[in-house]
């Protein structure tokens, strides 16, 4: 590749990073004079690359929005990052869109690099299946509303199958444990809400604007909202151990662990079913006392009896 051609491709790569670049800055990056930069821009225009000229004190050159990336403009590491990101999106519930996007990226890569990434995709597996994700249109509409600080009217189906319509101020969008959530103020109820995106059946931008509280953290709000979901059982267990140790061993993101006197900690969380809780408590490998609900004590005794029988080789 001749040096001027390499510089033209470098110029295109710089412009693809976004923003407006002054002629002086481009000349310094490329190691040429400003007249040569303008000639290189002319070469890109001859190739139908939509380079725009921006006038004014802070003017320069930029790429037109929506320009499609040509081949060879990703390094091996950049291509790997893009494909792995798309694969992660597939596990987060955006399977169809992620797979088609990854296929398009691989098609425009050099043959040798595309072949290596194909081998990577074939070799990678995941320890847990992906979940059903939100419609792309719902995710994009909510993201736009959050960015523009615009309320939205959403149609929502709750976990009991009841449908409602509400006006939401979307403060932020969070991916957690394979699902997507939007959190913000329910304008009608004047309360904070956390909604699953895959349960939103309609989104429409509404009139008005809102402000996000300065100390608001979307991820913290989602975790708190999920922890406060009114599941059937509220579980409270006293565990002998410092709060940090218990929190580390518990590995339950929605549980609240609070220090208690005499080296104990109090663990609180909610559950719709109790069948999985005994195994979680046993995994702590720390003494514990069940404070509520009383039914959990029976579940733990039954679980312990089954484990004892299994260990003794009793299949009955």
Write a concise keyword list for the protein shown above:
single chain, 316 residues, alpha+beta, five-stranded antiparallel sheet, four-stranded antiparallel sheet, elongated
Give your account of this protein's structure:
It is built from 11 helices and 11 strands. The chain has helices at 3-16, 23-30, 34-46, 76-91, 95-107, 111-123, 136-148, 218-227, 243-250, 277-284, 294-311; strands at residues 51-54, 60-63, 152-157, 163-176, 179-186, 191-196, 200-205, 233-240, 256-260, 264-271, 288-292. The protein has a 5-stranded antiparallel β-sheet with strand order 6-5-4-3-7. A 4-stranded antiparallel β-sheet has the order 9-10-8-11, with helices on one face. Helix 4 packs antiparallel against helix 5 (95-107). The longest helix has 18 residues, at 294-311.
What composes the largest sheet? 5 strands, antiparallel
The SSE order reads HHHEEHHHHEEEEEHEHEEHEH
**What are the segments in which pLDDT stays under 50 over at least 5 consecutive residues?**
none
What structural class results from the helix and strand content? Answer: alpha+beta
| Helix content class | 40-55%
Computed Rg: 27 Å
Which strand order does the major sheet show? 6-5-4-3-7
Oligomer: single chain
| Mean pLDDT over the full residue set | 83
């Amino acid at each position: 590749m001749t040096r001027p051609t390499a510089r033209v491709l470098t110029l295109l790569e710089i412009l693809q990073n976004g923003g407006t670049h002054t002629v002086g800055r481009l000349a310094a990056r490329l190691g040429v004079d400003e007249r040569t930069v303008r000639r290189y821009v002319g070469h890109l225009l001859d190739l139908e690359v939509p380079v725009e000229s921006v006038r004014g004190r802070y003017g320069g050159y930029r790429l037109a929005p929506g320009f499609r990336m040509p081949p060879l403009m990703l390094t091996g590491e950049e291509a790997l990052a893009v494909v792995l990101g798309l694969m992660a999106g597939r596990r987060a519930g955006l399977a169809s869109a992620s797979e088609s996007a990854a296929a398009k990226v691989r098609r425009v890569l050099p043959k040798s690099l595309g072949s290596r990434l194909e081998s990577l995709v074939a070799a990678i597996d995941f320890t847990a299946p992906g979940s059903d994700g939100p419609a792309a249109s719902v995710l994009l509409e909510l993201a736009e509303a959050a960015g523009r600080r615009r309320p939205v009217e959403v149609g929502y189906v709750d976990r009991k199958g009841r449908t409602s319509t509400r006006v939401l101020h979307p403060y932020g969008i969070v991916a957690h444990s394979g699902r997507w959530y939007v959190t913000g103020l329910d304008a009608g109820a004047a309360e904070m809400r956390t909604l699953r995106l895959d349960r939103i059946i309609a989104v429409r931008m509404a009139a008005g604007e809102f402000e996000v509280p300065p100390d608001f953290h979307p991820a913290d709000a989602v975790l708190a909202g999920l922890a406060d979901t009114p599941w059937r059982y509220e579980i409270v267990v006293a565990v002998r151990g410092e709060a940090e140790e218990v929190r580390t061993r518990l590995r339950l993101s929605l549980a609240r662990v609070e220090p208690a006197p005499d080296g104990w900690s109090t663990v609180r969380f909610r559950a719709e079913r109790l069948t999985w809780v005994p195994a979680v408590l046993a995994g702590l490998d720390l003494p514990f006392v069940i404070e509520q609900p009383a039914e959990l004590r029976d579940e733990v005794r039954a679980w312990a009896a089954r484990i004892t029988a299994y260990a003794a080789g009793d299949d009955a």
